[in-house]
Amino acid sequence: MATAIVYTEFGGPEVLTVTDVAVPPPGVDEIAVRVEAAGVNPIDAKLRAGRRASPALTGPRRVGTDAAGVVSAVGDDVDGFRVGDEVVIFGASGTYASEIVVPERDAQPRPPGVSAEIGAALGVPVGTAYQTLRSLAVGPRDTLLVHAGSGSVGQAVIQYAVLWGARVVATSSERRFDRVRELGAIPVAYGEGLADRVRALAPQGVTAAIDAAGTDEAIEVSLALVADRDRIATLVRGRDAASFGIRAFSGGSPRPLSAIEQGWRREAMPVTLALLAAGRFSVELGPAFPLADAPAAHQAVEDGVPGKITLLP
Length: 313
Ligand SMILES: NC(=O)c1ccc[n+]([C@@H]2O[C@H](COP(=O)([O-])OP(=O)(O)OC[C@H]3O[C@@H](n4cnc5c(N)ncnc54)[C@H](OP(=O)(O)O)[C@@H]3O)[C@@H](O)[C@H]2O)c1
What we know:
By secondary structure, this protein is an alpha/beta fold.
């Protein structure tokens, strides 16, 4: 048996409860993983609250897509992993648990020196950031504006874009300016007058924008500063993107990700693990909560507590 977090109705963080679940032996191409840390993403809270489309609840629903841990069993035909291997899990289902069984393809070897909490922090943010930058073809000739640059997705966006030669202006609260600067971006405070502040910081113009904030301001300022609407993407206002003539990748968009976009989301993980191992990528951790305190972890993510929040079984 394992311990897992589930909900049986949509609602506030309090609908998350701890339960015992059976762990089946891993099947063909599957591995069982003893979870050391699970990543908490805003989408987990949005789904729990019923604020993102999901199937009707017909029984207890598991939570979480990202984790890190140690392989505890391997199924038939698994050739990439052995019992005892340290792994990162991404794009899986129900990672808020003490043990999970996942397809081999949802795991990557965790390099020495990459802690379980760091590993669990990667999946959704790095996949989203990497894919969005690839989709917008951001490169050395670009000045990129990223909204919510201090968040988990924003920090990954900044780091890839800087690595790929772009100049980056990133919005955040002033208390987060140092972190944004440390990653190689020019920080700018969100709020009234944003467009003028960005113009002053980027007199050469802004060529692409990524909205990880979801505010009207983020959309309006992006539209005011970037001439080519195909180079503006929202990750939060997917439902409204078409009416603004901009692009959206998930975030409530009615358009599913293409096979190429999904491929980029997966490609991000080995790329990022290699960068981490080389000391060329940085993850800001927030508070870690015991697994049973999943409601407090969701409250923290909804309160905007800085850094990636994790759950420790
Ligand atoms: N489409 C997708 O596939 C996808 C994937 C991942 C995430 N997302 C969405 O992207 C958003 C960010 O995710 P995350 O994991 O980066 O969240 P996060 O780590 O919780 O960061 C949230 C960020 O929002 C910033 N923020 C708060 N109020 C703001 C405002 N008025 N204007 C601009 N920024 C503001 C905060 O900045 P300060 O702390 O500096 O105030 C913080 O950095 C979430 O809505 C999430 O659901 C979408």
